[in-house]
Design a protein that fits this description.
alpha/beta, 13 strands, globular, ABC_Transporter_SBP, ABC transporter substrate-binding protein, ABC_transptr_periplasmic_BD
Length: about 325
């Protein structure tokens, strides 16, 4: 296998000891969400193979145009010959990825960098910086962790006086057709809770779980947050049934922003998601939060990209860049 310097060992998120080059020069990023961490840590130019396609992640390619030089891979199992031909030094995957065993069989170092909640995301950021093996990535990891910690402290301090029983019940809908929601033990549940809400999906564990409209009506959430690509009520069966929900009647239905990655899913824009959600839930407590400014500052600080006001508005509205990537 190609390499950069002497081998060293890292312990990945699954507890595997993986021998990698001292400074991997060419990376296969084979988990959609993880590409955002690599970009944030300043190593987009080292991504040789990616499973994030321009059609699915136009903001990612707008913010990190060097990603266009990477070989795009579609499907859950990458072609091993393609990775070998691309000179890949190490591959990042998520837990349980079907790509893991085939790549290990050909001797490629495979690092499980998957995470499921805020705490494991921080560990994945640190792990990724360790794999990248340079001072810049470690500095950026520390900056991100400090900034995230401060954002969480800021939000929790403002919402601390609100009794648990008075906190709004939020249903996060990943898709309207088929109808799927996100439950406990997820990063979605984390940002709902940190922002001062309660997850309305009682008894649901995990992401993208199918439910019935009758179940949603029984939950009758105070707030509905629709994933950026969830669809609209007008386009789904039983669309009229949504109008009977408390959240719809009171006008508390929000479309989740989406940028380099959907903010509500498993990316570093989790930090922005906390601030955005807190402001939607408690506008009077967070009058000092200007999401245009917060978004622009985050992109400059962590992606090295200066958003125009029009670009920031489109991200906050879950719209793609004008003119594509």
């Amino acid at each position: 296998m190609p390499g950069r310097g002497q081998a060293r060992t890292v312990v990945d998120m699954a507890g595997h000891s993986v021998s990698i080059p001292e400074r991997p020069g060419r990376i296969a990023d084979l988990w959609f969400a993880h590409n955002t961490l690599t970009i944030m840590l300043g190593a987009v130019d080292r991504i040789a193979v990616t499973d994030d396609l321009p059609s699915a992640r136009p903001w990612m390619y707008r913010v990190a145009p060097a990603l266009a030089r990477a070989v795009p891979m579609a499907g859950p199992v990458p072609n091993a010959e393609t990775l070998l031909g691309a000179g890949v030094d190490v591959a990042f995957v998520s837990a349980g990825s079907p790509a893991e065993l085939p790549l290990r069989r050909i001797g490629m170092p495979v690092v499980d960098a998957g995470f499921t909640d805020a705490a494991s995301m921080i560990r994945a950021v640190d792990l990724t910086a360790d794999v990248l093996g340079d001072a810049r990535s470690h500095d950026m990891a520390r900056l991100y962790e400090a900034t995230l910690t401060e954002a969480i402290r800021r939000v929790r301090t403002a919402t601390a006086p609100v009794a648990i029983t008075d906190r709004p019940r939020i249903l996060h809908v990943k898709s309207l057709a088929p109808l799927t929601v996100d439950g406990a033990d997820t990063i979605i549940d984390d940002w709902i809770t940190i922002a001062g809400g309660r997850n309305a999906a009682d008894g649901i564990v995990g992401v993208m779980r199918p439910v019935s409209m009758e179940q949603v009506a029984a939950w009758d959430p105070d707030v509905l947050i629709l994933g950026p690509d969830a669809g609209t009520f007008d386009d789904v069966p039983q669309g009229s049934a949504w109008s009977a929900l408390r959240a719809v009647r009171t006008g508390r239905v929000y479309r989740n922003p989406a940028g380099v990655f959907p903010w509500d899913r498993y990316g570093c824009e989790f930090l922005l998601q906390i601030l955005w959600t807190a402001q939607k839930l408690y506008p009077d407590r967070f009058r000092d939060i200007d999401m245009m400014s917060e978004t622009t500052r985050f992109y400059h600080m962590f992606f090295g990209y200066d958003l125009t006001p029009a670009e920031a508005r489109r991200i906050l509205s879950a719209l793609p860049p004008e003119g594509g990537q």
